[in-house]
Amino acid sequence: xxxxxxxxxxxxxxxxxxxxxxxxxxxxxxxxxxxxxxxxxxxxxxxxxxxxxxxxxxxxxxxxxxxxxxxxxxxxxxxxxxxxxxxxxxxxxxxxxxxxxxxxxxxxxxxxxxxxxxxxxxxxxxxxxxxxxxxxxxxxxxxxxxxxxxxxxxxxxxxxxxxxxxxxxxxxxxxxxxxxxxxxxxxxxxxxxxxxxxxxxxxxxxxxxxxxxxxxxxxxxxxxxxxxxxxxxxxxxxxxxxxxxxxxxxxxxxxxxxxxxxxxxxxxxxxxxxxxxxxxxxxxxxxxxxxxxxxxxxxxxxxxxxxxxxxxxxxxxxxxxxxxxxxxxxxxxxxxxxxxxxxxxxxxxxxxxxxxxxxxxxxxxxxxxxxxxxxxxxxxxxxxxxxxxxxxxxxxxxxxxxxxxxxxxxxxxxxxxxxxxxxxxxxxxxxxxxxxxxxxxxxxxxxxxxxxxxxxxxxxxxxxxxxxxxxxxxxxxxxxxxxxxxxxxxxxx
Length: 493
What we know:
This protein is of the alpha/beta class and 493 residues long. It folds into two domains: 12-217, YjeF N-terminal domain (Rossmann fold, 3-Layer(aba) Sandwich), CATH 3.40.50; 224-485, 3-Layer(aba) Sandwich (UDP-N-acetylmuramoyl-L-alanine:D-glutamate ligase). It is 40% helix and 15% strand. It is built from 20 helices and 17 strands. A ten-stranded mixed β-sheet has the order 8-17-16-15-14-13-12-9-10-11, sandwiched between helices. Strands 3-2-1-4-5-6-7 form a seven-stranded parallel β-sheet, with helices on one face. β16 (415-417) and β17 (423-425) form a beta hairpin. The chain is elongated, with a radius of gyration of 26 Å. It starts with 11 loop residues before the first helix and ends in an 8-residue tail after the last helix. The model has no long low-confidence stretch (mean pLDDT 96). Its cofactor is Mg(2+); K(+). Its EC number is 4.2.1.136, 5.1.99.6. AMP binds at residues 410-414, 439. InterPro entries: Carbohydrate_kinase_pred_CS, CARKD, Nnr, Ribokinase-like, YjeF_N_dom, YjeF_N_dom_sf. It comes from Rhizobium puerariae.
């Protein structure tokens, strides 16, 4: 039975620290390898029982040791097994050397492997610890296996895939299934790694939970148990103002739809009141389209300042369809002391002067949520966006620290980061969320949670997850209007 929360993720470096701490505590490192290899063999027999041959590819390190154990277990079960080694097996050390000796199976050089119909490749070449491009020999073999359409079962992580960044290092196997140990790595969740891992099994090989928790950093999969207790729940005596008043800023008359999407999503997601703050020229079109959502004219920064002093406003969304320019900057700076979701045009308005935005929100508890997609992220954080050595998680965390804001770095593998170093990788969003207006709905949902009193990071994480659940309910072919209609149904977890 696993005793670790499923949302914990370890980087390859942290997993190495867990292995070392486990050995230092007196736990047999070979015993861990034995259990790992046996788990791989069991998965191979369970999920690929029809394979005519199990081709086990063993690398020069401990991942290869897992492969030798798996090969022995498969042979003991009566399966047809062929073992191939990378490098000189005579140079193996420690547990990997012992695993090869105990297997007593002949092996051939890796270059001798030719994919056959009916094969299952068990990839035990490198695992999660690889930090350089794969050798040409391995890249060529990966291509051969792909062309032959032979299924791959990966040990720990498909070889060639960076466990920290989720990116191929020159080339990487595309596995049908991956068996990893104790916890998943960021590379299992970040793209394109997620698509290269296939189904991921996590097997407990016996490292104590206390050791894993002691080395774990602040990266998690975005799951409800991380923020569920902070979700606002209306009580019997709750009234609309206690549930928070959310204001969403509209653009000009020909660009009002995005703000209305955000406003509707905010209302559905639980804000007690929602008002669209509209310029004068857009008042008629907004008035014709709003019922439960209120409308207030705001043309200038002076209008906004007056409104802030006379209305009970809990949180704000600025950016969807608003327009890029000085007006957006003035409005944002007027809101420096208020909970704010800054999206789209609001972000781009600061592309020439990102420090002006960051400096305005420094100090105190973070109350700014930035929701950039890839292009918008590069406008605010060009140096981070260009750094290929950083993972998406690392980029988001550094951006959050710099901006003193919760960052929602959007994409199919959205990362939510906090200035204190916490980062959640989101995985529940269906691919059809990639549609016009989806981001406007997300901004409104996060804004509603801010208005109800959730802290910025937790509001952002919850909003992203609930947005994914809303997308599932809306279904394939959904429109943003249909997505917004699902924004308040809740989640199943």
